[in-house]
Write the C-alpha cells for this entry.
Amino acid sequence: MNPTTYQQALERIEIPGTGRTLGSEKAVKTLREAEGALHLSLVFGFPIGSFHQTLAEHIQSALSAAGNTLPVHLDIRADITVHQVQPGVSTIQGVKNIIAIASGKGGVGKSTTTANLAMAMARMGARVGVLDADLYGPSQPTMLGVAGIKPDQASGKLVPVTADGGIQVMSIGFLVDPDQAVVWRGPMLSQALQQLLFQSEWDNVDYLFIDLPPGTGDIQLTLSQKIPVTGSVVVTTPQDIALIDARKAVDMFRKVNIPIFGVLENMSVHICPQCGHSEAIFGSDGGRNLAEKLNVPLLGQLPLALPVREAMDNGRALDLQQNHPQIAAIYQQAALSVALAVADKSKDFSGRFPKIVIE
C-alpha cells in the first residue's frame, strides 16, 4: 500500500453533481490497510443519496488505477450539523437547519416548490420537515398527502404528521376546518407561526423547509426576528411582474441578514403533451437574469407541466419524482445545491456551551 499515492488519487475524485472533489470537501477521514483489505471512510456535510453509488464506483476505479489490488471496504456517510443563523436568534431543539422558501408574489408555485424540494431532499437520505407558514392558505397537507390528519400530542407538544418519505409536516391546516377562513390580524399570525414551530416535537430534522406566504409582511418579519433561519430560496416565474415582487423578497432577506441560497424559476416553459412543442408562455430566462444580478445560483428551471399539477392536487409528490425522472432530476439538483450552500456556512457551536443565568 502507498498511502500518499492513494490519498492523492482519492482527493482528485469529483463528487457527482457538485463540481467539487473529495479533496476540496476534506471528505476522506480514514484510509488504512487491515486484514487483507483497504478500509476507507468518507464523511460529507450534506446528503449523499443522489451520488452514493456513482461515487463508490469512481473510488474503486481510482484506487485500482493507483495500484490497489486489495478488496475495498468503503464507508460513506453524511454528518449534517447545525449552521449559523442570523445574530441574536437561538436554534430550535430537534431542528438543525431552516430553509425559508419565499416568492414575494402569489401564484408562482412556491408551495409546489417547497413540497418537491423537501421530497427531493428526503429521497437523498436527509431527515426533512416542512412547516406551512402560509397561514391564510395552508396547502402543504394537501400537497404532501396528509390532509385531514390530526397531529398527536406528546409532553405538551404537537407531534408533526409524517408524510411520504418520512417528511415531518406541521401546518395550521391540521388544526382548523379546511373550509374555515383564518381571519387574524398580524400579531395573531405571528404568534401562531411561533407556536407551530416552537411547540412542535421535531425529531432530529436536518432541513426544515418553511413555506412562506406571499409578500413581506408580519410573517416574514417574525421569521427574521424570532426564528433561526439558515438561508432562503426565492421562487419566481420568468414573467416581469413576478420578478418585480421576487426582488422585494430578496431585498427583505438581505435587510435582515438571511442569506439567499439561490433562485428557482418555475413555469419556465410549457411543453405540449400532444405534439411536444415548447412555448415560453411567461417569458424567457427571467429567473436566470435575476440570479445573475444577485450573484446567486440559478437552482433550476421547472417546466409548466400537467403531471406536477396533478401530483400536487392529489398529494403524490413522491409518485411524481419516482415516475417523472426529468422533473425529479431538476428538484434533486436544486435540493443538492441548497444542501451544499448550507454546508458551506460556518457551524453553530452555541449548543455545546452551557447557558449562563444571572440571578
